[in-house]
Every structure is written in C-alpha cells, then in structure tokens.
Amino acid sequence: MGAFLDKPKTEKHNEGGVGNRLRYGLSSMQGWRVEMEDAHTAVVSIPHNYLKDWSFFAVFDGHAGARVSAVCADELLEHITQNEDFRGKPDMTDGTEIQPSIEDVFSGIKKGFLNLDEKMRAMPEVVSGEDKSGSTAVCSIVSPKYLFFANCGDSRAVLCRNGRCAFATTDHKPVNPIEKERIQNAGGSVMIQRVNGSLAVSRALGDFEYKNVEGKGPCEQLVSPEPEVFVEERNPDDQFMVLACDGIWDVMSNDELCAFIEHRMKITSSLEEVCNQVVDTCLIKGSRDNMSIVLIAFEGAPSVSDEAIKKDRELDEKIEGKVKELLEREPQENHDFGYVLHSVADELHDHFPPGGGFQCKKSVIESVYHRLRPNAEQDDELA
User: Fold this and answer.
1) For 314-335, what is the mean pLDDT?
2) What is the pLDDT of residue 377?
3) Residues near 76 by Cβ (< 8 Å), separated by ≥ 6?
4) Contact at 8 Å (CB) between 129 and 59?
5) Domain with residues 4-172+201-297, CATH architecture
6) Which CATH architecture has domain 306-372?
7) Which Pfam families match (predicted)?
8) Would the pLDDT of 156 be above 60?
C-alpha cells in the first residue's frame, strides 16, 4: 500500500507541446509517497506515416515499484500501433494503407495491452520474483475524427465539452459487480474492498502474482490486463480532456476538476501552469499519493480572458483585506496561520474558483499572512 515521507516532495516535472490542432501540458509530483511510481507518455504526432495526424497520451500509476509503469510508458504505444489488429487494411484499389477503422482501433488497443503484459511477464526480474510491481493505465488516442479512450485500473480520463464533463472512463475497483464476479470465479475474494484483501484495483498491467490461476485466460484472472475501450466523435464544442492518476481523483470529482481547469485556463495560457495548480491544490486538499495529470486542449478550449484575470486579481485583493481584518480584529491567540486560513476560507467560501475551493488560494493567503506577520513561525498544517 506504500509508505509515506515525513514531508511531501513538491518538485514537479513538466512537459508541453503543440501540434495536430491540439496543445498539451502535464505535471507530475511525488508528493507524500516514498517513491515516485507514476509514469506518462505524450506523443503529439504518432511516428508512423499513416498516423502522423494522430496523437497519443497516457498516464500510468505504478504500485509495489516503478518498473512496470516505466515499461508501459516506453512501450505501450508501440504495442498498440504495431500489432496486426490495429493496422489499417490495405486499400485494394491502389494497394496503399488506409487509416484504422474504429473496430481496428478497439481491437488493436486490447491486443496491445495483452501483448505488452505477456512480454513483461517474461522480464528476468519478474521471472525471478525480484519485481512484483504493477500499474494502472489510462490512455487516449486522438484521431482527426475520434477520441479513443482506454482504461485499465483506477486512473481516469475525462472530456470537457461545452463547459461540462461529457465523458469519463470507469474505474476498475474490486467491489464493482462485474470485477467481483471475475475475481470470485478465479478463486479469489474481495475483502476490505481489495483483491484478496491486498490490491486496490481489479485490472492492471503487471501484478503477475495475481495472474497464475490454472485453466483461466489472461482476462479471467484475479487481476485482468484487459482495458475498457471507449470512443467519442470529435465535436467543435470539445474543450479539453484530462488523463490523471487517482492521486488527483481521490480529492477532486470529475465535475470539480473540469470546472477548476476551465476557470484557470481563462487566467493563464500555460497548460503546464494549470496542471501545476491542479497538483498543488490536490496536495492541499489532502492527496497522499503520487500525482500525475496530462491536460490536452482542443481548438474549442477556453482562452485567456481579461475579465477573468481582473476577477482573480480582485479575489486576491479581497483575501488580503480579509487577512488584515482578521489580524486586527482577533485577539493575539487567534493569530496563528491555521486559524487565519480557516477563517478566510469560511468567510469567503462563495468567492473561490469553482472546484478549487480555498485550497487553490492557500499560497495567496499564506503569502499575505507572512508579509503582515514576518516574524510569525510558519505553520503550513491545516487545522
């Protein structure tokens, strides 16, 4: 289940890019965990001639080690696009390749996951028992006409269209009826919402100690590597999509995250900065896990708005005024940061950005507080 540090590691890794009528930014942070086990992939143009206007993005949330998630990040795309099920069928009129059909993509994604899982089972460190790691996987293939999503585990993808969450993948938890039935049919049990009382996800790549039931196929084991695949036709109202691990979803709902990102995209054009704000906010909201998020913006994405920037600046000024007022109004014993933070949160609760709450403005509150009380001992703990 993972061990925790005494203090979170808050350094972030960022990437970003542009192409194929989209932009992307990403952020990842180790947080409270002893090891960083997340990995990711972002490929704006898939490096095969007939897929150059297709893009691929993925997030992998490793557990019990980082080996499987790292291999997935390096190899899953190749396993999907290079298997025979995915490749476009030859056009018999001129013998050239055409782009894969929806059915090809669905079949190719599933085969790619299973092939990669089979390959990793043969890795020496897995065969020897030295490595017992596993990883969730959530990925998206963006074609000129469609958005394909594939999910295996409890990382999640959401699509924001026309100001609301229009689509989300389904988490694979052992308590889900279909998952529980498969686990029990393989001779296992679901205890404390975990596979055999241990693993919190019912589908994953790796985790080979849960995939040894005789007479059962790869998708019938206690833990299945089979992805659930979805497709959405692209729409001019598509704004952005998000791929993220459960370190994000543990503390923000689909609607909260969509609302927060839409709001912050009106304040800054940097998708990396928006992702950093999400990660920081989730840490303050109480996430104890590694955190990774990939944000992909389409042509219909919100653009920076002078009005939104003005309102955000006015909120910061309102926060400053409230902190000053509290320090002047309250007796000395109520001047500790925890009291001030929660008082500002309570008194301005209707004013904070949607989905972010007071947590997304904690750094502003903190900055004002320490400017007004430069000798106060820093106290970042939430009371």
Assistant:
1) 94
2) 62
3) 41, 58, 112, 113, 116, 137, 139
4) no
5) 4-Layer Sandwich (3.60)
6) Orthogonal Bundle (1.10)
7) PP2C, PP2C_C
8) yes
